[in-house]
Amino acid sequence: MKFYGGIEAGGTKFNCIVAHDPQNIIAEKVIPTTTPEITLKEVARFFKETEKKHQIALSGMGVASFGPVNLDESNPDYGSITSTPKIKWQNTPLVSIMHRYFDIPFGFDTDVNGAALGEGKWGSGQGLKDFVYITIGTGIGAGIICNGLPIHGLIHPEVGHMLVKHDLNRDPFAGYCPFHGDCLEGLASGPAISERWGIDTKDMPMDHPAWNLEAEYLAQAVHNMSLFFSPQKIIMGGGIMKKDGLIEKMRLLAQTSLNGYLASSQITKDIDQYLVTPQLGDRAGSLGAIVLATLATSS
Ligand code: ZN
Question: Average pLDDT of the chain?
């Protein structure tokens, strides 16, 4: 059996995993995101130690990273984190640094594209060619899978920064995004909710008015994504989506908003099969990195 290294590189922690698939995971480690020098050295040490302990050699490695990142393989900066607000990580050539430790094939993509691939192979997107995985947490981001692979395009999609209708009379909160103010992420990410209401989302009961407003913004995103990409399913992940009852509210609002225009029973009738939660839970990203590794190894 071949084993791969998977790295979900996040702004607060790196989730590292050595696995063949979800049933065959031989090691996992969470490493805090401090500076590239310290964190990446720790990451390399974990994989080296796992190879030694289990007497294996990794066949490939996958990195699903926070961004923005450079995904253009013809560009010398391919595999780098670029203009992130995390100053110490700006212009960090993540893949080339890891390549110095491991001379094996590397796959690289955004964190959300990685998670989308993971859900596609082993989770809620199994058997689908076209779907969206969107995560609502500290930020909002989405992987758009088209014909089985993530869309990259000019840079990569940044669905979290789409514009949504914002009624300033009902919701005078100016928005949280440093670039756009009241884009979707500026209105509906975890920090936006906390800042608007002045309490942590964890301390908000289910009947807090925050959740109806949140469902409305997210339903607008579902409306837009359904029309833009015609996905077979939209998988809604991230910490905010763990709130009980939120996805049910969104399903109703999205159906109402689309108003029968997309005449598929997936939306008009069986929307609980269309708008779903992830199955891999907190491992979507790290297992997605394993998928990136397998793709890099087979290409
Ligand atoms: Zn924005």
Answer: 96
